[in-house]
Amino acid sequence: MRENYKTVGEFADAEIVIQKSRFIGHAARAETEKEALDFIASIKSIHRSATHNCSAYLIGEHDSVQKANDDGEPSGTAGIPILEVLKKQGLKDVVVVITRYYGGIKLGGGGLIRAYGKATTTALDAAGIVERKLHHLMKISVDYTWLGKVENEVRQSEYLLKEIQYTEGVDLYVHVPAENEGNFIEWMKEITNGQGEISCFEKEFLEFKIS
Predict the structure, then answer these.
(1) How many angstroms separate the CA atoms of 199 and 195, rounded?
(2) Which among 53, 55, 81, 106 counts the fewest CB atoms within 10 Å?
(3) From CA 23, how far away is CA 105, in angstroms rounded?
(4) Which of 93, 122, 92, 102 is nearest to 26 (CA)?
(5) With contact defined as beta carbons under 8 Å apart, do 13 and 27 qualify?
(6) pTM of the entire structure?
(7) Would you tell me how many other CB atoms lie within 10 Å of the CB of residue 200?
C-alpha cells in the first residue's frame, strides 16, 4: 500500500486564450481508469461543439495506467504535453481534459505544445495540489487516571487527536504517520508507564494542501 503521494485537491476548470483560441482546462482526481474515462466523456458531452477535447491521465501507484489523446490535433502536440505536465509535477490518480475552441489562427506544432502545457498547468493551479499521507489511526486505551496526561501530551505533539471515547476506560484515537508508528508506540508506553493498551485501529489517508 502506498504511503504518500501528490494529486489534485478538487475538480476545477480554468480558461486561457492564446491567439484567439480558447483553451479550457478541466482537472479532477481519478483513482481508476473507468473514473478517468467517465470524466473525459462528461467533459466531451458538455463541450460537444468544441474543436478538440484533448486529454491525459495517470492512474496507479507506479503510473501503471497512463494514456494521452490528441483528439484530432497533430500527433504529439496535445495529449503528450498534458501528460508530461502531470508527470513533471509528480501527480498520481489524476485526469485532465483540455477543451479547445479554435480561434482561426494556427499555432503550429510548437505553439500547440506550449498552449496545451500552459492550459494544463493553469487547470492544476485552479484545482490545487494536495499530498495524501498514509496515517495509522492508533487507539490508546487507558484508565481515567491517565487521561489528562495522555491527552495533554498528544495535543502538544505533532500527532493529530481525532476523538476520545469514554466507556469503562478511555479510548483516544490518534492519527500517526505510517512511518512513525513504532516511535509513537514507544512514546505512549513511556508516557503511560506501560499501562496503556496501544493498537492500530485502521489505516487512512489524510490530505495536506501544497498549493
Answers:
(1) 13
(2) 106
(3) 13
(4) 122
(5) yes
(6) 0.87
(7) 14
